[in-house]
Amino acid sequence: MYIALMGCAQQGSSTPLSAAIDGGSLIDAHDVAIMMALLKIARTKLGKRTSDTYIDASAYMAIAGEIEAVTEKEDEEFKIDLMKGKPER
Fold first, then answer.
1. Which of 49, 51, 63, 88 is deepest in the core (most CB within 10 A)?
2. Per the domain annotation, does 1 fall within a domain?
3. Which range marks the domain in which residue 60 is found?
4. pTM to 2 decimals?
């Protein structure tokens, strides 16, 4: 899952999946990592709890943070390219 999420983040961050929420916006790798963390959190109240549940939830949040950092870096590089007159992504 980690490799798939990071691969998605590095290839433009968006999958072709349309969300049923938020006006049909695209679901990106960051959204998936957050949703998985929320699933693990919900499981602590509604499902079978194991020590692994807590580890998984924190790992998904770490993945979301890494994806956000990669996205921010790419956005910053794009802004620098725009200032240099290179608007391609």
1. 63
2. no
3. 30-89
4. 0.62
Report the sign of the C-alpha dihedral through residues 87, 6, 42, 17, in that order. Answer: positive
Beta strand pairing status for 14-18 and 26-28?
antiparallel
Does residue 11 sit in helix, strand or coil? Answer: coil
Digit-coded pLDDT (tens) for 57-88: 999 999 999 988 888 888 787 777 767 776 66
Pull the structure tokens for residue 41.
């959190």
Per the document, the length of the chain is: 89
Give a yes or no: residue 70 inside a domain.
yes
Provide the H-helix boundaries in 1-89. 2-10, 29-46, 51-83
Spatial contact of 8 and 28, defined as CB atoms under 8 Å apart? yes
Under the banding of pLDDT at 50, 70 and 90, the label for residue 39 is very high
Is residue 50 a part of any domain in this protein?
yes
